[in-house]
TrEMBL record, chain A:
The keyword Transmembrane applies. It is a multi-pass membrane protein. Belongs to the EMC3 family. The chain crosses the membrane at residues 14-33, 137-160. One of its GO terms (biological process) is protein folding in endoplasmic reticulum. This is ER membrane protein complex subunit 3. InterPro entries: EMC3 (IPR008568), EMC3/TMCO1 (IPR002809). Its main location: membrane. Keywords: Membrane, Transmembrane, Transmembrane helix. GO terms for cellular component: EMC complex. It comes from Dichanthelium oligosanthes. Pfam families: EMC3_TMCO1. It is found in: Membrane. The keyword Transmembrane applies.
TrEMBL record, chain B:
This is ER membrane protein complex subunit 6. GO terms for biological process: autophagosome assembly; protein folding in endoplasmic reticulum. Pfam families: EMC6. Its main location: endoplasmic reticulum. Keywords: Endoplasmic reticulum, Membrane, Transmembrane, Transmembrane helix. The chain crosses the membrane at residues 53-73, 85-103.
Amino acid sequence: MAEELVLDTAIRDWVLIPLSVVMVLIGVLRYFVSKLMRSPAASPSPDPKLVREGSVIYSSSLPPIPSRSVPRQVVIRARNLRTNVQFIPAKAFKARKAYYTNEENGLLHVPKEDAQKAQAAMFSDPNMAMDMMKKNLSMIVPQTLTFAWVNFFFSGFVAAKIPFPLTQRFRGMLQNGIDLSTVDVSYVSSRSWYFLNLFGLRGLFSLILGEENATDDAQKMMQMGGGFGFNPTMSLGAEKDSLVIIQHDWALPKMERHAEDVLRKLLKK
Amino acid sequence: MAAAGGVSSDDVPILQAENLTSNVKSIYYSRTFLSIIGGVVAGIWGFTGLMGFVFYFLIMMVASIGLLAKSKFSVQTYFDSWNRILIEGVFGGLMSFVLFWSYPLMMI
């Protein structure tokens, strides 16, 4: 282990503190900018209540190719069926299952050529691509700018020391930008300090900016199913499979006993 | 926290997804908050090395106990599994902890 390095306090005052403050402020700024960019683009989305209930609005003006929101709502409906399956009788469940998973005209069944058409329609939909791009831009541009700024001003020196020892393997990660093999690994270069900030401040942002935080968008996108929006074919297929394999177990016959238990418990109180 | 559901005597879980998500979210917020505050405290107390991580996991354990008390010791009423209380957000908060742990150490 190398001997202790003494870090100049000027580094602390002129590198670490500005860097951290700038990163926090940029995070806040990005949040508001993305909010601004999103609000006019908020297309007349369907009534949130309707979406939650999962009822599909099949209007006569609907193009033959299912619009972007319809397959998603079918998936939501199927999922609702799957989670609440124990509350309907076996016969009702069978009927619904046939309705959804029928090989010829079930709701979740997507013919091959149709799938491709839908995909193409989605890609050619300029509105959606625009939306995606805005979101990505609001993520990437500030990050690139900050990284370039850090690289330009603060490259090539040891900036901080993290309070725990690490093995040599971490050298590339923590001492990005300095090529000294004798410095202890727990000393961090400024560029790596930037990365540490980038990941560590995520929690702070979610606290100070509330839930719909711009940094969470990446996560949300992943949950929605892939970068370029939501792939209707794939999620429909997955939902169909899980609906097919589900075990039906009707809960209501046991409900009487459950109700008895609850009432007895109430009586005891 | 809102009750996400009750569990009947037979194993028919009745969960309300929205309440569950809001509960999980509140766990996440409390964990994040604790990891930041814990990081600052660990830095001020001058923990280094393994000691800091021990401190972090101790805090997280205390948080789990606190959450357990908050849910009146009936986890099944509020969450779908024990893992929610025990490990939800622990590793996500670690990065924030490390960052806020090294801040005060450099300031002093």
